[in-house]
């Protein structure tokens, strides 16, 4: 067994430990016993690599479980130290992330500098609150920006878990101790960051805002919102009606930053830079740089970070001349992200769906493609490949979508076949149009017409598919059935690709 494969297996067990600890606490005694067993196994089987790797896997499993538990307990301890929710307070702090603007409100992530409780009780917790994070939902006006210093007055809360959404878990995943809704908010100091990360990030966000203004200045609402979703993963200005149609037709994924979107961006950049006369090595490093600028532009959501890490690893594999093993890149990307924030695996639905979709494309797509022999091979539109990838992603994510959102789309294969083939062209023309609009407004207006034409067709297809009878229906699924389905799906993958896994040394 190669060292790289042994490392990937260890990372997989690290992820398994985090997953287990998300639902069941691993005691100190049990973790210590498993770790000793792993060390013992390594010691007596060092000359037998497969057995020694098993020992490393046990140790990494314990590390993953303890990492999740220590991370979560730190948030809970901070909440306990700062007191119960429901207290009125005046908070002074700084916005530490890009504001998430919606149609009727804006979400702010604020790091507390000073807090003063207004309920007349002893202010013993005011000093300890410095550096804590509060999640605030404020009115859209006045507008606030990243790194602005603001003052808010309202009621601090730690929301209870509802039937459809785990608010305490979501806040913990965001590193937030409290939530404050509709506070009185005022600007104290406009963002004036000195050179460093805050300055770089604020400049990138200002460029993003200008690019979005180019889009909405030249395109109508639905078409502009769809292009903004394709390029930036931003659905904040989509109408609720259009979002519902996207969900009903199974097309929500195209308006999110996915691995496929980032890989499309990378391929466009590589082709352009090589065509412009750069050496392939120079084009590689520039492409890598622009990928991460793009990830920052969309606001660093988990899906974008995962896509950026995966695209970077795949580019490195190609650069070093090694075999492109996508599933290893996926495991490594997950291990890197969860080492930074293990709560994403339990509390971030976007993170879960992103990795399930990529896993489906890697492991299920070849199986489905082999099964749909009745669909002809066709190089121009590549309908067979699109259908296989659509069904694979749907099969991998559908149970979790039903569990989280209670909705099943029956027209998803049809809508994806009609729209997905045009996405690379729309993205390429969209980038050219937006960049041209930044430099020369009248040129951007001219280049917006072909983009608008393609987007208008896409919007019409979405409207048509959503209007079909029984396009979608409501369905509830318990966590028990969710686990049964994924165990069954894993068994099918192993059975269908057993020979391949044995030949590669995975089993």
Can you describe this structure?
- There is one protein chain.
- The chain has 507 residues and is α+β, with helices and mostly antiparallel strands.
- Among the domains are: 3-81, no CATH class; 88-189, OB fold (Dihydrolipoamide Acetyltransferase, E2P); 203-250 and 411-476, no CATH class.
- Helix content is 63%, strand content 10%.
- The strands form two sheets. The chain has a five-stranded mixed β-barrel.
Number of strands: 9
Let me know the average pLDDT: 82
Specify the biggest β-sheet.
5 strands, mixed, barrel
Rg calc: 24 Å
The SSE string, one letter per element, is HHHEEEEEHEEHHHHHHHHHHEHHHEHH
Uncertain spans: none
Strand order of the largest sheet: 1-3-4-6-5
Strand content: 5-15%
- Alpha-carbon distance between the two ends: 11 Å
- Portion of residues within helices: 55-70%
- Secondary structure class reads alpha+beta
Total number of helical segments?
19
Q: Given the C-alpha coordinates, what overall shape results? A: globular
């Amino acid at each position: 067994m190669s060292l790289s494969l042994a490392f990937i297996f260890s990372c997989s067990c690290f992820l398994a430990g985090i997953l287990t600890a998300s639902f069941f606490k691993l005691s100190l005694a049990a973790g210590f016993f498993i770790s000793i067993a792993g060390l013992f196994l390594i010691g007596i089987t060092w000359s037998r690599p497969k057995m020694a790797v098993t020992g490393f896997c046990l140790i990494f499993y314990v590390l993953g479980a303890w990492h999740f538990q220590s991370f979560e307990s730190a948030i809970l301890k901070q909440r306990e130290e700062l007191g119960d929710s429901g207290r009125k307070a005046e908070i002074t702090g700084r916005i530490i992330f890009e504001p998430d603007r919606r149609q009727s409100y804006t979400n702010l992530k604020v790091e507390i500098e000073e807090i003063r409780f207004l309920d007349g009780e002893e202010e013993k917790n005011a000093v300890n609150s410095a550096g804590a994070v509060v999640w605030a939902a404020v009115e859209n006006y006045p507008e606030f920006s990243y790194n602005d210093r603001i003052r808010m007055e309202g009621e601090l809360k730690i929301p209870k878990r509802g039937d459809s959404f785990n608010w305490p878990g979501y806040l913990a995943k965001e590193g937030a101790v409290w939530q404050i809704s509709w506070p009185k908010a005022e600007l104290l100091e406009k963002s004036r960051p000195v050179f460093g990360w805050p300055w770089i990030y604020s400049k990138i966000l200002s460029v993003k805002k200008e690019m979005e203004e180019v889009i909405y200045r030249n395109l109508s609402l639905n078409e502009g919102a769809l292009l903004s979703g394709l390029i930036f993963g931003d659905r904040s200005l989509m109408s609720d009606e259009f979002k519902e149609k996207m969900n009903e037709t199974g097309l929500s994924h195209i308006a999110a930053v996915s691995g496929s979107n980032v890989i499309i961006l990378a391929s466009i950049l590589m082709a352009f830079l090589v065509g412009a006369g750069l050496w392939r090595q120079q084009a590689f490093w520039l492409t890598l740089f622009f990928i991460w600028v793009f990830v920052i532009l969309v606001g660093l959501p988990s899906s974008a970070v995962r896509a950026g890490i995966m695209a970077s690893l795949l580019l490195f594999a190609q650069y070093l001349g090694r075999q492109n093993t996508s599933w290893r890149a996926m495991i490594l990307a997950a291990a890197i992200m969860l080492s930074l924030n293990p709560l994403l695996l339990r509390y971030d639905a976007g993170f879960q769906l992103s990795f399930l979709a990529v896993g489906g494309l890697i492991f299920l797509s070849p199986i489905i493609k082999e099964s749909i022999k009745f669909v002809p091979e066709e190089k121009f539109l590549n309908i067979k490949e699109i259908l296989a990838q659509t069904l694979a992603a749907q099969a991998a994510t559908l149970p979790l979508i039903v569990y989280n959102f209670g909705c099943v789309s029956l027209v998803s294969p049809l809508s994806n076949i009609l729209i997905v083939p045009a996405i690379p062209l729309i993205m390429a023309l969209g980038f050219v149009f937006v960049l041209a609009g930044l430099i020369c407004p009248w040129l951007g207006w001219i280049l917006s017409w072909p983009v608008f034409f393609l987007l208008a067709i896409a919007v019409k297809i979405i409207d048509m598919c959503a209007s079909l009878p029984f396009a979608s229906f409501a369905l509830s699924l318990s966590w028990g059935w969710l686990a049964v389905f994924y165990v069954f799906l894993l068994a099918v993958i192993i059975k269908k690709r057993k020979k391949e896994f044995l030949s590669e040394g995975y089993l």
